[in-house]
Design goal:
nucleotide-binding; cell membrane; Beta-Lactamase; single chain; five-stranded antiparallel sheet; alpha+beta; ATP binding; 13 helices
Length: 456
């Protein structure tokens, strides 16, 4: 801060004082010219002296700004005292601002370094600006040795490279740590500032291992239960054909129904386990979606039977998909069958297959959308976020009546996701539901047509 004693060193003459001094200066040279003769020469000498004085002051200012190491400016009077004093005030304010910013930056780095996650600051070219301490054991980075290095050159993982270069950071990805392949890292990128990114790497090894243990347990238990259930069903079917007391036949029939229901549950668990644990790359082929939907509609009309639902198929495009035919059929059949189960007798169900044009910075792209719309009982807003969880049922009593297990939508979500799609659900209680599967242009194998090509 500036002291009062220091402030006294500098002149703070106002504009009136500066003009007065200038007038007195030239009045003195004019008087000398009148007294001694040669007025123009005396005025010229005065002007040159004034210019020389200003030049000397400019030189002193330049030396102080660029070569000097002192905080305080050189002493001067008049207008140059004001100029030097103003520059001094600007420097004091800038130094104070820089100290505050440096203090904030140090605190920010200490906070980031104290987190159990690895933090890396990247510029627009993906080069490292700064990284925290945990970036070392998690990502194998060293600070400041890796300053200015491209992160993709240090973390060599194709999935990670594709993620960074895509600039699509809505969802995190999971990769193996380059320092220890047994570590699983969840990587999230948060854009900030002018095309800069903050990368956060979190150790999720324990969560990944627990999830894998759960998947293995479900798969193993399902396989182990399938064989004894098959044996029990065989004996129950044999006993139901025998000449037994009607009371025993009724009990055997009930046991057979429950065994059948448990067998279906195990089959669904096995399907879900396969969707979670296996790759479907080798089963990719072009799937004729319009033909598949027509077959599904016929099956669901038989499923509806005496309930006489009005099931309508609207085909607005002839798009086919590149994917796993079995998984896509399972997903679409589940959606239409659910609509049949949860729509009142005589209700309306619309299956709509259409193309959708999306605009982005890279241009236009065509995606395909399957919608299953019904005017059934609808779903509460509170239940929508959990609807695709395993074994979650909105109305447990009604689900038991319809044979629901709570696995159908979980299977749909995984099957659609494995085929480059996304399941979206909108519903209102008492107003029906809309289940839609959105597929990216990467798997749409035929161009869409604008006209309606079929309604059944």
């Amino acid at each position: 801060m500036i002291k009062e004693s220091d402030m006294a060193l500098y002149s703070r003459t106002g504009s009136f004082g500066v003009v007065s001094r200038l007038l007195l200066y030239f009045l003195g040279w004019t008087t000398a010219g009148l007294l001694f003769g040669g007025l123009p020469w005396w005025l010229l000498i005065g002007a040159l002296g004034l210019l020389g004085w200003h030049y000397i002051q400019l030189q002193r200012l330049q030396v102080w700004l660029h070569k000097g190491h002192k905080l305080y400016p050189p002493q001067s009077t008049g207008i140059w005292g004001n100029v030097l004093y103003g520059v001094y005030l600007l420097q004091v304010r800038n130094r104070s601002r820089r100290r505050r910013l440096a203090s904030l930056l140090r605190r920010f780095r200490r906070v980031i370094s104290a987190l159990p996650d690895g933090a890396v600051m990247l510029d627009s070219q993906g080069e490292i600006l700064w990284c925290g301490e945990m970036a070392g054991p998690l990502l194998g980075l060293q600070w400041p040795q890796d300053n200015g290095q491209r992160l993709v050159n240090l973390v060599r993982d194709p999935k990670f490279t594709e993620y960074l270069e895509s600039n699509q950071f809505d969802q995190p990805i999971t990769i193996n740590s380059p320092k220890d392949r047994l570590l699983h890292l969840e990587v999230r990128v948060v854009p900030y500032g002018q095309r800069q990114n903050l990368l956060i790497a979190r150790d999720v090894t324990q969560l990944v291992n627990l999830e894998q243990t759960r998947r293995d347990f479900v798969a193993n238990v399902s396989h182990e239960l399938k064989t004894p259930l098959t044996v029990v069903r065989g004996y129950l079917e044999t006993m139901s054909d025998s000449d037994l007391d009607p009371m025993w036949l009724r009990a055997i029939s009930l046991m057979g129904d429950q065994t059948q229901r448990m067998s279906q549950l195990i089959d669904q668990l096995l399907v879900l386990s396969r969707l979670e644990n296996t790759s479907n790359d080798y089963l990719q082929r072009t799937v004729d979606i319009p033909s598949m939907l027509q077959n599904i509609i016929r099956e669901c009309q038989v499923l509806s039977g005496e309930r006489k639902h009005n099931i309508e198929l609207l085909l607005e495009c002839d798009c086919s998909l590149k994917g796993n035919e079995s998984e896509l059929r399972s997903a679409f059949l589940n959606l239409v069958a659910n609509a049949v189960h949860y729509t009142p007798d005589g209700g309306n169900i619309l299956v709509h297959w259409r193309a959708q044009t999306l605009k982005s910075q890279d241009g236009e792209s065509t995606s395909a959308v399957l919608s299953v719309v019904d005017d059934g009982v609808g779903i509460s807003v509170n239940d929508l976020p959990r609807l695709t969880e395993r074994f979650y049922r909105v109305d447990k009593g009604r689900s038991r009546d319809t044979g629901g297990s709570g696995l159908g939508l979980a299977i749909v979500k995984h099957a659609v996701r494995r085929n480059s799609g996304e399941l979206k659900i909108t519903s209102e209680l008492g107003q029906g539901s809309n289940f839609s599967c959105h597929f990216s242009d990467e798997v749409v194998s035929k161009p869409a047509v604008s006209k309606c090509i079929g309604r059944t």
